[in-house]
């Protein structure tokens, strides 16, 4: 801001330090003198059009026509500053005492174009050569050693601001109103600013102690408040004119998305279903290399309280480094399955959500965040303590699970979301001591299976919706259990009576491996050991279709003289209402040989009894038939010869 006051000071020196002779000069000459003084002070070409008009009543002052201040030699051809008119009001009492106190300066419809070169030089910066007029220092003193000019009030009305950085972006503001009240040169300055960067009015109020020192680039106490329709923010600390600042920052937002849009801070990635209330308190430090350090950070997001520290690098690609800790976190809105992907009969009937997933937020920042939470709730699943590291680089997010207490066990591994060339999700997870009933109930609405398990899983899915991802899943894994139960089927009762009327199967061990292709999980080596039975399994589970077609074949180990009797059971249908019933076709096929052997043996016994009639006759049936045929042939031959 110092350059603004240097420019204004030059105008004032040119217009109001002319003293009594001011009223004796022609208006055109006054304009020439004013332009020359500004040119000497800034080194820039100045044009004042329309002459200078003096006013004695009701306010002593000077008003100019259109004013332009040329740009730097290396910048655009457009003027750095253009205003439709400039009005200067003077304090007559102070003027009579030899002091020049400006009661008010009003710039009407100023158009300010700020430009910064690639090496950081701004067109608002005046070099020492530019700042010297006729070998004299620009100390703010009037010619002839008169008292310095004191600015009491500055007002910019309906201003337009354009900022452009070479090789970078630009932004423009219009309809900007600025007021500065500075009644005492060494006292407090009150600044009011109103603007609409995104169409919604924002009000800024600031107080700067020792404002004269602040303009000289010294550190000064600063209080700043920003008010939008979405919430408020404040700063209390110390700052320099170049932007360096250190102090306490607080924010209280009723609607953080609305507040973000009003400040035009870029695209919002806030989850739609998450409450938008945010409270923030931190000790902040901002340095010239565009680094923002946050210490003693406390953030309340909805019902989630997070503490810690963070460092934000704002130049070019935004980079965030943070270490956070929390007691209990509820991330259900962030991870909600939505649109039919969640638990419950309605969502199951509808299948996975086909709503497009907007993952553009992954490209807004590069980040490295560590999290230590005592508990976390995600998508209807309650997790225990979580220690994790989240990294985000060029739209690729990686969540390293150092340790997660989940489903009465522990999970470690890595999850990845990549949106560089379209959205894909994947991971490699290991689990120990997981309670399968809790896991399957939360993830797939399956409640029939229980027991502790150790698992490994790798997976990859591609698509812009949950439905597309689940239907494209590929991967592999394995599972092992030492004890568990299967509700809804009693394999022992089924083997004993051949009937199935519900019940529970208790098993001693379970082992299986599986592969995933095109959203379908396939398995052919399930092995379950029971007390008197063994069960083998094979089939498919449709992760995309949310259905199952699986055959479990229990074998009675003590049946058939220890050879075993198998009665397959088919589980088929949707996850919500699977059908569990004996597979009669498989039963007949697997036991056909047994039944044929039994029938053949019974037939041979009847033939033997018919042909022999002698008890204890152990001759083979084929021999009995041969003897019988020979006997009947002899009888026929004797009758042919006429014998008895």
Verbal overview:
With 644 residues, this protein is α+β, with helices and mostly antiparallel strands. Helix content is 21%, strand content 45%. The protein has a 35-stranded mixed sheet that branches. A hairpin with an 8-residue loop joins β32 (547-556) and β33. The relative contact order is 0.04.
Instruction: Give the total of beta strands.
Output: 35
Q: Mind summarizing the main beta sheet?
A: 35 strands, mixed
Q: Helix share of residues?
A: 10-25%
Ranges where pLDDT stays below 50 over 5 or more residues in a row are: 17-22, 128-148, 338-349, 632-644
Number of helices: 13
Mean pLDDT, all residues: 77
> Distance between the terminal alpha carbons, to the nearest Å?
146 Å
Integer-rounded radius of gyration: 44 Å
Beta-strand share of residues: over 45%
**Overall geometric form:** elongated
Structural class: alpha+beta
